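Worked Example 4.2. Consider the chain below.
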Amino acid sequence: MGCLSFGSISEVVGWSFFDIQLANALIGIGTSVAVPIVTMVGREIGYEQGKIASYVSLINAFHVIADIPSSLVADCVDLRRLMSFSVFAQAAGCMPVVLLGCTSTSLAAFCVINGFSTGAFFLARHIYVARRLNPDHCGMVMAFLSGLLRLAHMLGPIFLGVIASLWGDTRYFFFVPMGASLLAWCCIQFSPYCLRVGRNAPQGRAHATTATQLEEAKKLDEGSVGGETVPILPGDSLIKGPVLEEGLTRRVVSYGAVNTLNTDNARSNVGSVGSEVGIACSHECCSLQIEGSKGGTAPATYCSVIMDQWNVIWRLGIYVILFVALRANRKLLLTFAAMRMGFTDVQLSFLLSLSFSFDAFLFPLGGILLDNCSRRFARLPAVLGLGIAFLLLPLQHSGQWLYVMAAVFGVVDALGCGLIMTLVADYRHQYFGGLFFGIMRTVQDMGHVISSAAVSLMIHRFDFAICSNFWGVLGIFAAVWGWYGVPNPTR
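Applying the procedure from the previous section yields the following structure tokens:
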């Protein structure tokens, strides 16, 4: 496989993902302007900085709160419908301010709905893409999802500035996130693509427990059992679903939900027919109705799932928290370094723009690294590079050195673009995978909270150089943990 193969490019820009990639970028535009809009509206109402910060924290809080509920819903419903509902809800969240004006109630409603809807969308699109993509190009697809978000965060403020210069009324500012969300909704809603499995398709892979059954299940995964095919839309290859190992006998992966099945021996024969497996959507043949799944799933089942996956959750979770903390503190420590050197606001803005422009345009490097190297090796460059950059940051006290380090941070961060999403996606076929995605997303959000609190405590008690060196050592530790501590999934 070449560094950037034709397969990787077609997987990224192909029709199967184009609508999701475009919707992802549009939602990124809306997300990028949420905090500036809340700040400007709060200032117009006459709020102090502390109260404005409280409204901003509402967005972040409900973004995190949405993770687990959305993951539970993702295991039960069509993911495209969940994404469609989320982006439409984000557009609807702008309506109270547009119709009622800028009041404390309408602004709070916008913050709550925006935070929850974006949290649900980003989780759902991660699960959907992870289950749909070709594993050989997983890194590049995830890198593009992350990279397009970074580019969207550069475009969003530009659109907001244009609206602000044309119309002075702050209500019109909400046209940016509302318009972006409605366009994203159209992308998902009117896409011609729908993943579906044929009616009365055999379910052998959901019940395979013996060597003979596993062999027949493999034939099913290749698209045929006894002349029965599993069709999808023209232009695509047949679905190659996961073959379950012994012990995992009570699930069926429908690429839109993972559902428990009745384990009655009368229904556990390979090649049994009569049930429908697929995604629930507007097509009749996509309705999901599986025997044995009536009545929902008991909370005890989710607890057992968490216990079964606990070894992966805590080991991968430590790496995710460390990586997220290192990335988050890059911006903060660069700002502190610039303040020490007496940078003006214009110089500081240029410094940060320079740094983030590197990873915004070099994000394919992360996908190339993930698709052409082992996962074990791919976990090293980003955290190790960030650690070394933090160690080098306080060595020189000059503006030129700071610009060089800003560029270094940007290039190194690009090497990790899509890394976390890919590492989590490697476990996409686990029992109740949606719940696993939700837990890991919550862990990722915890990394942002922990990093901000840690820097706030350290900067008041220690010198800048000590603080920077601490994060440098932590980056080296993260590399060691990524090599020895994180489990390697079977690809």
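Confidence is low (pLDDT under 50) at residues 194-214, 219-296. The two ends are 16 Å apart (CA to CA). Compare this with Example 4.1 before moving on.
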